Amino acid sequence: MKEDEDRTLVARCLAGDRSAFGQLVVRYQKPVFNAALRLLHNPEDAKDVAQTTFLKVFEHLEDYNPAFKFYSWIYRIAVNEALDALGTRRPFEAISDEKTDEVAGPEQQIEGEQLGRAIETALMQIKPELRALIVLRHFMHLSYQDMSDILSLPEKTVKSRLYSARQLLRDQLLPYGSALR
Amino acid sequence: MTQQRLFELINAEIDGELDAQQRAELARSLLADPNARAKREDLRRLCAALDQFEEVEPPSQLHQNVFAALQLSTPMRSTSSATRWRHAALVAGILAGGLVLLEVSKGPPSASTDVAGTMAAPTTPTLLDAVKLSDGPVSGRATLYRDRTGLSLELDVTASAPIDVMVTGEGQSLRIKSLAGQGKPAKRPARVQLTGPGWDGPGVILTFLMAGHQVGSATLRTGKGS
In chain B, which residues have their Cβ closer than 8 Å to the Cβ of A88? Predict the structure, then answer.
């Protein structure tokens, strides 16, 4: 079971086996990088966040409580790092260029890559805290319980905020008319 | 049924969380209200599109960058005398970024001037803060660590011309001269120990100077007092 393997790897790390940490990095670099990328919409920043996440995991490994899922812990660090990075990002670093994308007319269909870009752009228009819910649910396919652990929010709050995030995203996509139909 | 209730039921349906009674309640509303059907269809398609996003491969250097950073925090042990190790650490600390000279400026009388080349403590430093530098002609990364002896600053920067870096703490400052330049990064990150009570504040401010003119700045937090 993956969670048991994680605990074993963590125990080996704490015993001084650095190769075990390497296995944790290999195991989690893709989801951590992708979570950061979807939150930040910038590969270079996402790489920095992923690196910092792993360094913090390494440095605070002794604080990890094995009673909890390791991935919840590492994703929590990654999400917080990404939100911190967004907080320090300057206004001109926002995705201003993407707003210049042509918007499809009300009757126009967009699909494939164009639809993906439209959704990514719309995602960046909603608050980062709400975006995090979309990322955890739809890109990382996590349960409400996991999201609750990662965000330190009650499940009920997770649900209501996720619903709001979806609604805002839908509203952002309205200029694309029938894009989602 | 209120719009709020409808909204909750549609979302719960998408997440597969409806029980039989709720499903029947939603079905009744959908049958009676074309707007409800349209809203449900929009949300379902949006969520389906989100779920289909493909994962991106992380940069190939991510793994090696993490381990390179970990090497920096690896406890290093002296193989000969403590004096020899201390001297090596002093040289490495000062020359890590190429030609780096340190000048200790005047601080309050109580502040220690023991800021350069202090041997790293044989414990794993804790990362306190890191900032990405993309300020005008200066780019790269500055990272602040704490170990048993105090703070240490790591600068991994590229600049279009030689730059000096003023490092200012609560009661002390120092100047790192001729760090990087000609568009080339330092060969290795420069690492500077910041020991003494003058550095024991909420953070340090970095000011980047090119030909005596400020071309950028950054703040690194220690977490103290925040």
Answer: 131
